[in-house]
Inverse folding.
């Protein structure tokens, strides 16, 4: 079974600075998809960014980018120019051939003014 | 589009009571799923469905029942509530790759239901 590990339960960053959230996963599949979801205090789950495993190019969405290292099974999220609205729980998730989404336990990010 | 809707938003039950959490989506998604979120545990899959009439168990299915009679609806039933089922429940939907949908598709989540079992 696939597992997703987020080793940083909590992190903090100053406004306007850059922060990187770590995620590693374990799978024997070759074709799969990786996602980062954001959950602000409103509880709504919001997709931040997604990556296809067969694409070597790292995905980027505005201030959010990933560092995808397939051989190392690592999928970290970099947030540039952090904003107060980035304060949230961040979940890394894996989807393989079964279509089931497997989540990590999350990282609570606090952006300080 | 309303997206994924869940009712109720909050619910308090007594041990042994039964109830149904409702979930509906208007995006014609084949794949629907239920998760529970507990502090420090992330989201764990309870049950899922890849289409009307097809359901399967996820990681933590005990104590829960589901059915999928239509594409739009995917209710979650608690047969005899226990305090261990106190949690936040999320329903989600997406296109199904197995049904020919796009491969890099995201799951859309409902707003969640906070359930307390006393």
């Amino acid at each position: 079974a696939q597992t997703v590990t987020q080793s940083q339960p909590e992190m903090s960053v100053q406004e306007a600075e850059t922060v990187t959230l770590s995620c590693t996963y374990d799978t024997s599949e070759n074709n799969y998809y990786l996602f980062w979801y954001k959950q602000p205090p409103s509880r709504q789950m919001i997709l931040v960014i997604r990556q296809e495993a067969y694409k070597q190019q790292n995905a980027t969405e505005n201030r959010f980018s990933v560092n995808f290292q397939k051989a190392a099974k690592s999928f970290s999220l970099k947030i540039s120019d952090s904003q107060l609205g980035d304060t949230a729980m961040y979940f890394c998730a894996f989807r393989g051939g079964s279509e089931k989404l497997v989540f990590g336990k999350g990282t609570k990010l606090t952006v300080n003014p | 589009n309303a997206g994924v809707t869940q009712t109720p938003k909050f619910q308090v039950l007594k041990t042994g009571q039964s109830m149904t959490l409702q979930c509906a989506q208007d995006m014609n998604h084949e794949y629907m799923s239920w998760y529970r979120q507990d502090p420090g545990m992330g989201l764990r899959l309870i049950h899922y469905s890849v289409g009307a009439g097809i359901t399967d168990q996820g990681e933590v299915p005990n104590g829960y029942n589901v059915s999928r009679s239509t594409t739009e609806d995917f209710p979650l039933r608690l047969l005899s509530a226990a305090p261990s089922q106190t949690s936040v429940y999320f329903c989600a939907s997406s296109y199904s790759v197995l049904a020919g949908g796009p491969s890099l598709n995201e799951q859309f989540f409902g707003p969640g239901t906070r359930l307390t079992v006393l």
Remarks:
- The radius of gyration of chain A is 13 Å.
- The longest strand of chain A covers residues 88-95.
